[in-house]
Amino acid sequence: MTLMLLWCPALTSLTIGNGNKIGVSGATAIAQYCQRLTSLTIGAGNKIGSDGAKAIAERCQDLTSLTIGHGNKIGGVGATAIAEHCRCLTSLTIGADNSIDSDGAAAIAEHCEWLNYFSVESWTFDRSGQGATRHEEYMSITALKSHSNVRISIGGLTLMLLWCPALTSLTIGNGNKIGVSGATAIAQYCQRLTSLTIGAGNKIGSDGAKAIAERCQDLTSLTIGHGNKIGGVGATAIAEHCRCLTSLTIGADNSIDSDGAAAIAEHCEWLNYFSVESWTFDRSGQGATRHEEYMSITALKSHSNVRISIGGLTLMLLW
């Protein structure tokens, strides 16, 4: 590869295909011999690492378009170097499994305000030819929705939240496994939210639910999909802090237990839509709150084979 780069000193555009495994040494050669580049694509699986990304960023500062395919493992160090040195970028793509982490995300958010095309993992924004930069466009975004099953990294999630400070509605798709760290990022950067959906299998746990509840107190609609394991601690925090809720959905396998059920029953009297496991009550648009409606119920029947938890059962009986 070095021979080709030496023979072509006037290169302004270079594409390295997927799976060539050029590594740090290949990235360093590009940085050394291709400092006139304005467009560079490093395909998936080339494993340039943070050192390779840093070398390219420090020497190829005229880049206007940069694509780093998935699995190059550039890390927060590489992402930060790109953000700090490649100030001419208008197009940036970073594939999955690059581990850009929160520090890398913060650097991109701070320094790459002139992008009009950006893609990280499942998030893509394209304002090419529309006259608006990333900064101008994203500052006004109020609703954001991720795809399901794309395993959003903490870096990718943090970047989107930093770039969209006006969010009032956020949906995290099923199976992204954002975990406690992702939930904490939402709590830190999205305190204006009025609607939040955490899809099934994101595993935010009780600590994640507690962080969201304590910081996102303007929520009027909250959905926690099944298998997030928020427990009684998470359910109690939601009940105690999210006093504006009118719609609450808690899926199965969240283990809200009797304490969580008691807290919801005590504090969430203004709900007009509620769903927990197999139990759903909907008084939306009918003018009656949960408290007014449920106090008069004299008969209740559950579905079969839904494995009602003690928390879910306790909540229905208390209500």
Major beta sheet summary: 7 strands, mixed
Spatial arrangement of strands, main beta sheet: 7-8-9-10-11-12-13
Determine the N-to-C terminus distance.
71 Å
Shape: elongated
Q: Mean pLDDT score, rounded?
A: 87
- CATH architecture field of the largest domain: Alpha-Beta Horseshoe
Sheet-strand content, in percent, reads: 15-25%
Q: Write down the CATH topology of the largest domain.
A: Leucine-rich repeat, LRR (right-handed beta-alpha superhelix)
Cα gyration radius (Å) = 24 Å
| Order of helix and strand elements from N to C terminus | HEHEHEHEHEEHEHEHEHEHEHEEHH
Low-confidence stretches: none
Number of H- or I-type helical stretches = 13
Q: Structural class of the helix and strand makeup?
A: alpha/beta
Counting DSSP E segments of at least 2 residues, the number of strands comes to 13
Counted up, domains total: 2
CATH superfamily placement of the largest domain: Ribonuclease Inhibitor
The CATH class of the largest domain is: Alpha Beta
Q: How helix-rich are the residues, as a percent range?
A: 25-40%
Write the layout of secondary structure elements.
Elements: H1 2-7, E1 13-16, H2 23-33, E2 39-42, H3 49-59, E3 65-68, H4 75-85, E4 91-94, H5 101-111, E5 117-120, E6 123-126, H6 134-138, E7 143-145, H7 154-163, E8 169-172, H8 179-189, E9 195-198, H9 205-215, E10 221-224, H10 231-241, E11 247-250, H11 257-267, E12 273-276, E13 279-282, H12 290-294, H13 310-318
Parallel strand pairs: 1-2, 2-3, 3-4, 4-5, 7-8, 8-9, 9-10, 10-11, 11-12
Antiparallel strand pairs: 5-6, 12-13
Helix pairs in contact: 2-3, 3-4, 4-5, 5-7, 7-8, 8-9, 9-10, 10-11, 11-13
